Amino acid sequence: MLGSAISILVTGAMISAVYALIAIGFTMIFGVGGVLNLAHGALIMLGAYGYLVVTSSSTVEFLALPPVVGLVVAIAVGAIGSYGLYRGLVEYIEDNPVITFLATLVVALILAELAVVGFSASPRSLVNLAPGSYHHEGFGIRVTYIELVAFVASWVSIGLLWYYVTRTDEGRSILATSMSERGAQLTGVDLPSVKARTWVIAGGLAGLAGVFIGTLQQTSPVMWLDPLALAFIIVVIGGIGSIKGSIIAAYLIGYLETLTVELLGSGFRGTFSLIVLVIVLLVMPQGLFGREWVHE
Fold this sequence. Notes:
296 residues; mainly alpha; globular; ABC transporter involved in vitamin B12 uptake, BtuC
């Protein structure tokens, strides 16, 4: 009994850390620009394929860089892809939420098709950044090292992001814009620059998450669908635009799924997450930590 409880605690913490990485970028973009970026999942896929290209000789024969370098490349690919999406498309249409919503979905579908053309529809395995696992026989716990690395990377990223948005002028301008765009403008904040930085940060986090999802599950042209749905559920429950809410909701969903799998089986993994989503929408439509939006 104690072993099962500890196993659930550990497994839930590992899964939830990856979920937090997936959701934070999604909520930041909505919080700052009011954009529901449906290409966020595709940016996760882009990061995974970026890692695959530079670390596996099966894709480009002369390229087989160390996994740590591949991790940096994945973050850069996600960040550059996200920046390009904002500067090349979203910046011109973001005043129309519906058009922006549909445009980002189209971009995601195009990227998925390009992935099929470039890498085929077959799932690919990524070079494991940290192979091996830890097994505690007494408690019956088995944790892979890649899960531990994902957990640490997630919290380091969250810590750096938290420091950036609360301790630096550039970061505080992102926070101010997410609370009131007009108020930020009146204090001299450069809105286009703030939005571009937000997209870069969100893309970098998506690229990082892509490596861990691609390693723990699989890398394929459809791998972006589940993370996108997951990000949407987490952000709605946590409160759209709230980083703190997204982190807490990620852990809520992570532990809920772990408990469900442990008690009912993997077939029910996402069932209770959807039930919680419906309850939150009915009872607290602003989410657990939704911002009190300022009318402009």
